[in-house]
Amino acid sequence: MTTLSAVQRAVIGQPQARIDGPMKVSGGAIYTSDVDLRELLHAVPVCSTIASGRIASLEFAAAEAMPGVHVVLHRGNVGRFYRISGNSMDTGYVDEARPPFEDDVIRYYGQYVAVVVADTFEAASAAAAAVKVTYDVTAHDVGEALAGDGEPKVESERGDAARAFDAAAMSIDETYVTPVETHNPIELHATVAHWDGDACTFYETSQAVSNHQGTLMQMLGLPREKVRVISRYLGSGFGGKLWMWPHSLLAAAAARYTGRPVKLVVSRKMMFQNVGHRPVTQQRMRLSADADGTLTSVRHDFVNHTAMADEYQESCGEITPVLYSVPNLRVSSALARRHVGSPTAMRGPGAVPGLFALESAMNELARKLDMDPVELRLKNEPRVDESTGLPFSSRHLTECLRAGAEKFGWSQRQPGVGAMKRDGLTLGWGVGACCWPGVRFSAQATVELRADGTARVVCGTQDIGTGTYTILAQLVAGETGVPLDRIEVALGDTALPLGPISGGSAVTASVIPAVLDAVRAAVAIVTARAAALSESPFSGAKAGSLAFGAGRVHRKSEPPQSGVPFSDILKMARMHAASGSGSAKGGFDDPLKKSYSVYSYGAHFAEITWQPEIAQLRVSRVVTVIDAGKILNPRAGRNQIEGAVVMGVGMALFEHTMYDPQNGAPINSNLADYIIASHADTPALDVTFLDHPDTVFNEIGARGIAEIGLAGVAAAITDAVYHATGVRVRKLPVMIEDLLGERSEARRDG
Ligand code: MOS
Asked: pTM surpassing 0.90?
C-alpha cells in the first residue's frame, strides 16, 4: 500500500547518498570550532576540583599578567545573567538552570568557577591552569547505589498489580542497574560568540537552534531579534547538544567584556563534567504470569540520580505501559540527588535503560516458564494501547519478532545453558524488543523554485549527521522532479523559518508536512501564474484545478500531485520563479495523541561467542527488524540503526562513567579510559525495515528512526550471555569478573 506518486517513488524510499557528504569528507563543511573571525579571542574555563563546598578564594592576578591574556572573568566581573522563566520547549529549555558563577557554591566536580580570555587557545589554557582556587569543602555523594529521595511518584497504573503479583503462580522480582554513560560525539561542544552592537550571533554545536536562541535571549536579557544561533554541521550529539549548557553564556560574556568575538571549545574531559550524561538508573521489576505465559502483572519502580539543583528525570517507565498486554500494572519513579552535573537526554532517554530492565525481565520470566522468549512476547501482544485505550496508528511488533527470528535462524535455538557450540566456541542467543514514541514538533519551511531550474528549501532545524539535508531535498525532488543535485538545502540558523529540535527522532515526521506544504505552494504559484498569462505549455493547467489549494490540505488517499507534468512545472518555473511556505503543528500536546497511540517498534536478535578458556566474549552478530513506518532514505536509515546497535554493544559491555569517591570527579574522562564500542567490536549487522507507512501520522507515513535502534540491544546481549555462560548480569556493563563468577556482592551493590 503506497500513496506515493511515480516521481516521489523515484526519490523517496530510495537509498540516496547524503547530499552533504562530499562537503564533509573534503573538509568544506565548517563546524563550530572551525569558525574563524577577525580579532577572534579564545576562552578556556577553570573548573572546580571539588564536588561539594564553596569557593573560599580565587587568585588570578598572576594568570591575568601572563602573555596574551585579556581578562579572567569570575563572579565579580562576568556581568548579568538571568534564569529562564520556566522550562518550555517553545520558549527555552535547559537541564542546568543555574547560570554560571551565580553563587560561590560548588555542587559538582568540574563546575565552572572562572574563565580566561586570551589571544590564543594555548595562552588561555596556560593561564587557566595558573588560576588558584581554594575551597571550603563539604561532604559529597556520587554513589551509584540509589534510594529515592521522598515518596515515589506513580507514573502509570491500571488494575491492582500488587495483588495480582502476590496471587500469581509464576513471578520474578529483580533489580536492574544501568550506569552513568557519557555522550561522546567526536565533535566537541563549542560556542563562538560575536557581538555586533547590542546583538549577538552564536555559532553553536546545537541540536536545537531555536531553543538555544530562546534560552540565550532569556538568560542574557535580550529580545529575540538580538540573538541569532547558527549550527550548520554537527559531528553528532546523541542528546548532549539538545539544550544550552553554561559555556555558551561564558563565551557571550567574554565577547561582551572584550568587545571581540570569542571561541570556547569544551574539552573532552569537560564533556564528562559540564554537558550532561545519562544518569545511573536502578529499576526493580516485578512480573507475574499464568503458567501459559499470560502476563498478570507488571510493576516497574525506577530511580535515577540527578544533580543537586536540577530535576532531570530519566523516564525509564515510558514504554512499559504500552509494550505488552497486562491487566495490572504500576510504574513509579523517584529521584536521588548526587553531586554530579545535570544529567540530560542521551540517545533514547528513558526507553533505553527502561527497556534494558523490561526486556531483561521478560527474558528471565521466559526462562522461568520454560518458554521461548519470542513466544512469550507474541503471547502478550496487546490489541490496543492499554494505558489509554486508544488504537495504535500502526503497530507491527509481532511481524518484527517473526521476521527477525526467521532471518536469525531462531528455530535452531537449543535453550540449555552452554548447549550451543560452533568452531569450539560456546554460543549464546538472546532477544529484545524495542519501542520508541512517534513524535512530531512544529515546523515551518520555505521552498523556492528558481528561474535557473534549481530549487532551494530552508528550515531552521539541524542535521546532526543523520541525513536531514538529504531528506529535505528528497521531499522537494518528489514534488517537482528537480534532481537532488540541483536542490540547495539550508538548515541550522534561527534566521530561517522555525524548525524542530533534532531530538526524539522527530525531525523527519515534523518536516514532512511543512516541506510538502511549502513546495506545493510554490508549485501552485508557478502554475497559476503560467495559467493566468496563458503561457502554460501544459494546456490543462488551470490554477483552480490544482490539488493543493492553499497548501494546507492533507489528502491521505490521493497521490500528492498537481496534475501538472513535472517537466512542465520546471519549464514554468523558469519563467515564473516562486517561493512557497508551509507549516505544521506538533509537540508533546499533539492533538493526534488524543486519538491514536503512535510508536515505532522493533526486535533485536543477538548472538555472542564465549571462549571460557581465555574468558573472551564477543558479540558476533545482530539481526534487527524495525517497524518505523515509511523509510524515506533506507541508506541513511540503516546507518542510524547500525550505529545504534553498535552503541548497544558498548552499552552492554563497555560504557560506564566512573566517579572517584575521593573527590567526586568523573575519573575515566577521556576516550582511552571510557570505552565505547569500536569497529573491532562491531558484530555482523543485518537491519531490515518493515515497510508499513503510518499514514495516520503524516501522508508519507514516516515515523522516526535512530534512537529506537539502541533500545533492547543490551537486554538481548545479556540474555545471550546467560545462555552461553549461565551468568545473569543485571548491572551493566557486563564485566569479565561477572563471567569468571567473581563479581562480589559489594560491587553488585555499588
Ligand atoms: Mo536525542 S537523546 O533526543 O538527541
From this structure: yes
